[in-house]
Amino acid sequence: DAGVTQSPTHLIKTRGQQVTLRCSPKSGHDTVSWYQQALGQGPQFIFQYYEEEERQRGNFPDRFSGHQFPNYSSELNVNALLLGDSALYLCASSLPGGTIYFGEGSWLTVV
Amino acid sequence: QKEVEQNSGPLSVPEGAIASLNCTYSDRGSQSFFWYRQYSGKSPELIMFIYSNGDKEDGRFTAQLNKASQYVSLLIRDSQPSDSATYLCAVNIESGATNKLIFGTGTLLAVQP
Lengths: 111, 113
Description:
The complex is a heterodimer.
Chain A: E1 5-7, E2 10-13, E3 19-24, E4 31-37, E5 44-50, E6 53-57, E7 64-68, E8 74-78, E9 87-94, E10 101-102, E11 106-110
Parallel strand pairs in A: 2-11
Antiparallel strand pairs in A: 1-3, 3-8, 4-5, 4-9, 5-6, 7-8, 9-10, 9-11
Chain B: E1 4-6, E2 11-14, E3 19-25, E4 32-38, E5 45-50, E6 54-58, E7 61-66, E8 71-76, E9 85-95, E10 98-103, E11 107-112
Parallel strand pairs in B: 2-11
Antiparallel strand pairs in B: 1-3, 3-8, 4-5, 4-9, 6-7, 7-8, 9-10, 9-11
């Protein structure tokens, strides 16, 4: 049973660029959430997708956007990258209201 | 006031001892609570969850919940060097059909051989 898979694992971008991160949820899960974890901090909720709609959003600017596809996979897009966007980006999947499982994450470095 | 608070540590315990990790939360309406373990450079791994007041045991791990005091703890018995990691406490916040986790900053545990 495949768990939550994310790609790419590591990437380096330049300030002002755009990045897309991808996630495939755990088999049977239809809800995908994205979290940002800065160094030394706990993960912070970015947003959640269910039935291809953004259902809930955390305190992140509009530069952060996402999408969920009919097969429940998801993308996180960040525009106009800032140095402060450097972090581990975690995708999590669940059934609605269910236990949340995390993928291995995508390490983003902005230089 | 932070929604979920943990002592950042490091908490250092000798091998074989009991490690006690603590967490307080501010939302009295919270119903479910999670402990994740995170090794350096890795993603969080779910260890335990607890919904009801009292203790819940799973192997060497025991989660304790006191909703009146808004307090959650994790006890690790017979601590091993492999338990050295950051332990994240998370509170599940439900809103209609959606939910999200609010995390503390984590407690770094170091088990000394």
